[in-house]
Amino acid sequence: MPTEITKMFDEVLEPFGAHAASFFLAVALYHAKKVSYERAAAMAGLSFNEFGQRLNEHFGAGFLLADETVREDIKLAEKLAE
Fold this sequence. Notes:
- This protein is mainly alpha-helical.
- It has one domain.
- Helix content is 66%, strand content 0%.
- It has five helices and no strands.
- Helix 2 (20-31) packs antiparallel against helix 3 and helix 3 crosses helix 4.
- The protein starts with 6 loop residues before the first helix and ends with a helix.
């Protein structure tokens, strides 16, 4: 299904360059937790690192970290350190 962007978006997206609509749509899906970081990067046509750089540039952070995920990672690190 092709995605159609209305003309109202053209003037807002134009300063961000080619493929801005794909990037911001991928970011919206990532922020809504509908797709993974890796999938969003692919949808935006960017590498893993490029996607992170653009996220940081436009949103001030490259990854979304949920509190529960961070707690789980800390527990796993502590368990591995034992």
